[in-house]
Structures are given as C-alpha cells and as structure tokens.
Amino acid sequence: MKIQILGTGCTKCNQLFALTEKAVEELELAVKVEKVSDINEIVAFGIMTIPALVIDGKVEFAGNVPSLSNLKKIITKG
Q1: Which pTM does this prediction carry?
Q2: Which of 41, 42, 54, 73 has a beta carbon 3.0–4.6 Å from 4's, enabling a disulfide?
Q3: Domain architecture of the chain: domains with CATH
C-alpha cells in the first residue's frame, strides 16, 4: 500500500499528514506516508483542492481533514 498526502504545506495539509501517520501507526500498518508538495504532481492527480489523500494512486478525498476514525476507515477499505 502506498499512501500520499497532496498539499503545498498549508496548515490543513500538515494536519492531514500528521493524522494519517497516526492512523497508520494505530492500525499497525507497515506503510510510509509520503508528502507530495510539487504543484505539477498534485495537478496530475486531477484535484482542485488540497489537502488530498491518495492510496495506491487513487484519490480518496480532497479539500478537508477527516476525523481519525473516518481516516482509519478510508485507509482500511483501500
């Protein structure tokens, strides 16, 4: 599994990154969470709002920071 956080470094982007790392840790997954801040890479995913969560190349959501419990559900379904 590959998890990426798309964002330019804004507060919400940093919150999503930290929350995703926490979710991965609590789920005991051996997955590295990667930050993608290059605007060209972000645009290539076809999103218009950040932050966004990408799991295995698929955008799961964009534009908000979900709760930890919702984030865990999204990660485990992916």
Answers
A1: 0.93
A2: 54
A3: 3-77 (3.40.30.10)
